[in-house]
């Protein structure tokens, strides 16, 4: 039996077999159209909003605990928002990136706002929700301006970029191979 297997293996080695994989543009376009039907803009917006709130709250909590504003939190907010929009929205269209960018910026601003509220609550020895009721919202832009530094622009820019970039549903190479290729197998015997 071992001799028979050896003979078969030798025969396979002597036979040249090539597999050529070509992307079929029609199949690819059909697959992309199918994916576009799965897009869910309302869920993408909702995910972006919720992720910006969660990101802003995390930013504020870390800022209040450390008593230091860490600019890298903006990067985390952009990442969280972008992936939230991607996961729930399943978007391929540009609007999903715009949504991700917008909510990433909103999350950064909320992080700064919640930090101000947290510091005010600690200073006045009040609860956070109670502080929200008593805070003078007219002075918030002024206070946020006082705490702003030019480096914040860099971190906000990175957050916006990440919110945009990570908001899109990727199409993997494996998906393309599975749904949009033609496989051509050619066998040629040695001369």
In short:
By secondary structure, the chain is mainly alpha-helical. It has helices at 2-14, 25-37, 41-66, 72-89, 94-124, 128-134, 140-147, 151-165, 173-179, and strands at 16-23, 181-188.
* Unreliable stretches covering 5 or more consecutive residues: none
Query: Count of helical segments?
Result: 9
Return the structural class: mainly alpha
- State the end-to-end CA separation: 29 Å
Give the helix proportion (percent range): over 70%
Strand order of the largest sheet: 1-2
Question: Which range does the strand content fall in?
Answer: 5-15%
Gyration radius (Cα, Å) is: 27 Å
DSSP strand tally: 2
Q: What's the SSE pattern?
A: HEHHHHHHHHE
What value does the average pLDDT take? 87
What is the 3D form? elongated
The largest sheet is: 2 strands, antiparallel
């Amino acid at each position: 039996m071992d001799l028979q297997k050896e003979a078969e293996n030798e025969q396979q080695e002597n036979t040249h077999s090539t597999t050529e994989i070509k992307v079929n543009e029609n199949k690819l376009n059909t697959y992309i159209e199918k994916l576009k039907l799965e897009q869910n803009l309302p869920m993408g917006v909702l995910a972006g909003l919720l992720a910006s709130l969660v990101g802003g709250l995390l930013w504020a909590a870390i800022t209040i605990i450390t008593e230091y504003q860490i600019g890298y939190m903006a990067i985390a907010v952009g990442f969280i928002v972008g992936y939230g929009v991607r996961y729930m929205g399943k978007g391929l269209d540009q609007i999903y990136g715009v949504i991700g960018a917008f909510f990433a910026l909103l999350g950064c601003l909320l992080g700064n706002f919640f930090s101000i509220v947290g510091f005010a609550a600690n200073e006045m020895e009040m609860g956070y929700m109670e502080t929200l009721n008593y805070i003078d919202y007219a002075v918030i832009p002024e206070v946020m301006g006082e705490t702003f530094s030019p480096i914040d622009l860099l971190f906000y820019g990175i957050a916006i970029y990440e919110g945009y970039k990570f908001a899109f549903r990727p199409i993997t190479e494996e998906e393309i191979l599975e749904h949009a290729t033609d496989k051509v197998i050619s066998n040629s015997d040695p001369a």
